[in-house]
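Deviations from the work plan: none for this task. Representative record:
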Amino acid sequence: MFSFFPVAFWQTGVPSSGTDLAHDQLFLWIALSIGVVGLLAAFFFARSVLGSDTGSPEMRRISDAIRQGAEAFMKRQYSTIALIALGLAVVLYIGYRLSPLTAPFANKVVISFLIGATCSALSGQTGMWVSIRANIRTAAAARTSLGKALQLALHGGAVTGLVVVGLSLIGIGLLFLAFGGLHDPRQAPYQLVGFGFGASLVALFAQLGGGIYTKAADVGADLVGKVEAGIPEDDPRNPAVIADLVGDNVGDCAGRGADIFESTAAENVGAMILGAALYPVFGLKGILFPLIVQAINIVASILGVSVVRSGEDEDPMHALNRGYYVTTLLALAGFAAAIYFMLGARWWLLGSGICGIATSFLFVRITEYYTETRFRPVRNIALASTTGPATNIIQGLAVGMETPAIPVIVICAALLLSYYFGVRGLADVTTINAYAKGIYGTAIATMGMLSSAAYILAMDTFGPITDNAGGIIEMSEQPESVREKTDKLDAAGNTTKALTKGYAIGSASLAAFLLFSAYLATIHDIVAQRVTASGGVMPPTWTFSNVNLASVPVFAGALLGAMLTYLFSSLAIKAVGRAAQTVIEDVHAQFRDNPGIMQGTAHPDYGRCVRIVTTAALKEMVLPGILAVGMPLAVGLIFRYFGAEYNPTNFTNHPMIDGHPVNLSGAEAVAALLMVGTISGILLAMLMNNGGGAWDNAKKYIETGAHGGKRSEAHKAAVVGDTVGDPFKDTAGPSLHVLIKLLATVTLVLAPLFL
Amino acid sequence: MFSFFPVAFWQTGVPSSGTDLAHDQLFLWIALSIGVVGLLAAFFFARSVLGSDTGSPEMRRISDAIRQGAEAFMKRQYSTIALIALGLAVVLYIGYRLSPLTAPFANKVVISFLIGATCSALSGQTGMWVSIRANIRTAAAARTSLGKALQLALHGGAVTGLVVVGLSLIGIGLLFLAFGGLHDPRQAPYQLVGFGFGASLVALFAQLGGGIYTKAADVGADLVGKVEAGIPEDDPRNPAVIADLVGDNVGDCAGRGADIFESTAAENVGAMILGAALYPVFGLKGILFPLIVQAINIVASILGVSVVRSGEDEDPMHALNRGYYVTTLLALAGFAAAIYFMLGARWWLLGSGICGIATSFLFVRITEYYTETRFRPVRNIALASTTGPATNIIQGLAVGMETPAIPVIVICAALLLSYYFGVRGLADVTTINAYAKGIYGTAIATMGMLSSAAYILAMDTFGPITDNAGGIIEMSEQPESVREKTDKLDAAGNTTKALTKGYAIGSASLAAFLLFSAYLATIHDIVAQRVTASGGVMPPTWTFSNVNLASVPVFAGALLGAMLTYLFSSLAIKAVGRAAQTVIEDVHAQFRDNPGIMQGTAHPDYGRCVRIVTTAALKEMVLPGILAVGMPLAVGLIFRYFGAEYNPTNFTNHPMIDGHPVNLSGAEAVAALLMVGTISGILLAMLMNNGGGAWDNAKKYIETGAHGGKRSEAHKAAVVGDTVGDPFKDTAGPSLHVLIKLLATVTLVLAPLFL
């Protein structure tokens, strides 16, 4: 039977099975219980938020409009995504049924795919559900207390964080149980790959659709409002203003929620696959370790969120950072405990975990350096704005292209060190080879990085909540003192949004390596099964760990993978432009047909604008999304069927069936596409996220009075940079994070079709 | 003895040596003779250009100023480059002397390095020498005849093209002779790697220094001239105007000359190494084949240039294209003849050659599509300009990111087809394996692509000559009818410059694959030699053809390679900004200190501006240049010394010395750096070249009257895009071409140090 289980790839000796399943399954129940605790905590946070004051009727009117717009978008968006997901489920099912070797797994893969997709959709929607209710309450609280408002916004964010991590933990844990994980623990993790793919697929469309929506509405509202009509941002006369506020929710909350959900899901599945390979060493405990780390994440984040309190005059970032440090320290302590109880107190492995935690910390700090007004990069862009928009753009792009340098070195160092610690930590183990030990080290680093995910996500969702709160205050024309409070919160929210993007790309980079190894192991295993099933020759020393870059299909796959990231970004950016155009046209039409709007005597039709941008964004998200799924599939199939000519020619150490070498071109080309696409995607995403963030803050820096302040020529130039950065940092960049992880999960799931 | 000769890597059988050296060396003499013919033809073209009318004294005054500025820059630039090259020669010599295995080759490698560097420098300088003399004569001819002016400019360009290809051919041919190619033909090509490295090193600094110079002067002159002072382009009152015209020469002529020199050199060396591996099949003829193709290139290009004649009303591009078609057809015929006489009439191999020629043709056409005003991409950017600079920039970047898509598919198709044709063409050969046959097919495709290089380079140099001619006409205030003629030529020159950039990146992409194979073969050979010399175990089935992307050092190398291209681009772009700042400050100072300049009563000090931008550009070129050479070296050495921990763990099929596995981490990490750096560099260069070209022409399109024409808001927005595109397409993009090839040659030369 086909087992998805790569013995030769990872192991040097015969697997042992002397662990106590009855005892070790305790860890699964602990993890699941804490997952439920996380959801309960989310419920209590949500209840406390919902119980707060909802402000004046005027504020409620605005908030209701935002809520209705967001809900209408989400409903249509998830209907579209559901259709696409169901279509893919059918394709997947048929693909798996076609071969007798994969047919027995078709049901399990498709079920876990659908459950992953559903959980991912639920994560995004719950987050948004709370967020569009927390905004008004934060606004209302800001009328009396900054500290109270900050707490409300963060508690709203915590709901997202806890639901995302909790659902990921419970979903994977229950599937593991359902797939017989307690009876055949080494088999079950491989059948979870569908879960990761489902999660990524929904995340991709959620992020793409939301990202296109938010920036189309933003750019559209700004171009007709601020530039043409000369009215301020968030002015109630602008028909696109509600669409803009809706966008903050659907883009940032729902998008990032699904993004981090798939990060944890993909990383958990990858680490559990690896844990299965290390079964001879740790038994069931090694497979359950990633789930326990997520449980620690939940506990640490609940406590971290709870300690955040802020004085009325304190910078809100200080309070948020305190919570982050508390979470990190608790996660570290929990990590140490888990290593003690589950991994036989191998303290070198704690070193690997610290590598991940340190990477997370450094990525946040580096992102700060490149995007905050205190530091040189943003200052230089602001200075370049004094000579006009061209120099602002040149400087911004140069900063963007510089940003990957240090993070790349950090990732390399983290991988090298955690690998080394893994080898040292498992030095006494003889049943697995050094490579598996090292990879396990990098997997633990990835877990370390994700061990504060729930808190990070809470900080992230804090962003759109405070942004919306500011908009509600602005539109309901509250006194200046209240605005000052929400401006402070809004500034902190912008910072947290930028930092979490750095965190997301960092975790994607670390996880990429783990998932790539899982792909290679899976291919190896499938080849071994097929060759054995056909009575072919499987040389004992052969491994599918070497992807030959000098082979033409591999080079082609690598080129195509890198090209995919560029084309995908181009499509995403152009989609924003086209969707923004529809907004502009509608606003023009409303101004023309109803002159009372600009005079303030008539209300604009906010809903029409919301509907129009909804339709446009959903239409635009399809092409880049299909490209992302279709390209690996196309490359794999083309080289599967036409790639035999390009096989390696040294067949003395190659799997053979009936005297013919197994054609690996398809699997190899896809491996290269995955790897080089990931690398290119990481760098492009950093360029766009950090470049966009730096442009944004250069404008804000000038607005504080530098280089002539608002209405100066420098400010005009900086606005150009900020507008260019918008689709970079809020559409293409974040969508690339998701693309990277989707590539990893789609290739894992489709692997059997490439051979 | 150390042989650089990878028997196991390429060959399946025992090499034969039954070819007639005495007879086949005839081809070397033919190639060398045609090389001399090429130089002679260049001499005659130059003489006919120099014999033409030099116009009015006013025109000569301007031209002399340009010439002096260019010569002063070149002198200082090449002094700096010479120092860097000598320093590297010492490092190289010491590095090679350190190991007893490489020590015998130290002299040859260093000598070929120095000769390659010298020839590259000569190529760049000769081209410029003619170009700064052809500009005034073209301008003078334009006063009477467009057709005559076009011919003069093209003949000036032909001098560059022929000198570049001729010097490359003669340099390599003579070194091959000197290194005993006629006695031991299989050994000599490996010792030529120094030639390619020398050529690339000089090309990198020539392109970087020239590219920074040209854009710093251009941006600086525009910002104070057009934007601040409101005077037209090329106005004699602008102190930076001569520096701007000098820049066109040092950036485009000298830079691209060295770039194409390096392309032909690197490709020739790579193809000769492969020819040496195929010695059992073709004997000496296979090694000399690339040189004969260059000889065909020379003959075809001389004839192609000679047929170009243009009527007074014809679009100059038509005439230039006619010449290109003639050259291509002649090259194809010559290719067929060479295959008949040298490769045993294996017509499938002609198919490989046609792949290369078709790739060249398609790249030129795709570049046209993305950068010419007739087509949708430029029209869309122009349309986006109507809503301001931000949308212009967004649209331009989106177009730039879209541009790699089709070229990448073309490259993949060309590689796959030419590989397949190679396998078919050599199907009857049993002494080499299918991989070597396929790679030879791709090598022939690369030769096909480069078989019209001299003509392409002539078209490229046509650009700065006509640009300068236009500037001279403008500054000497000639009548409108003359300006119209030079405007036509200038427009054609802009097109040819864009097209040749497409060509250059296409040839770099094809050659990359060939050079990567050469690197792997070299590493394989060095390992085999070392293991044998130390009495170790060399498994017969082991090849260094598999670079394991799942190994941490390889992943790190790949990440660092991609990051290098981003950081390098960022440094190049920022260098332009800083150097432009010095120009702006000087112009401000001149206007302030001498108010007569703006009133037209006093001449500005053009020379001071030229000196300032010279100093700035030379200072700025050092850091990115050192990064390009230093990073592969650093990665290779770090993993050589610290990478043993990360070795693969399956040692059943691994070279061993004294029971320890040979540490390949350094060589593997560098291989990944080379490959992924190349892929990332190709895509980034396409983004920047085509994006920059499209912005440029969107502005020109608006200037023809679209969207409100000159002085409209759309035009202002388009000027922003054009300015952003300048350092993209003239500094960072072309420098990336050179970086890609430098990475290939530097890794070949340094390979022995990584083990």
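The two ends of chain B are 17 Å apart (CA to CA).
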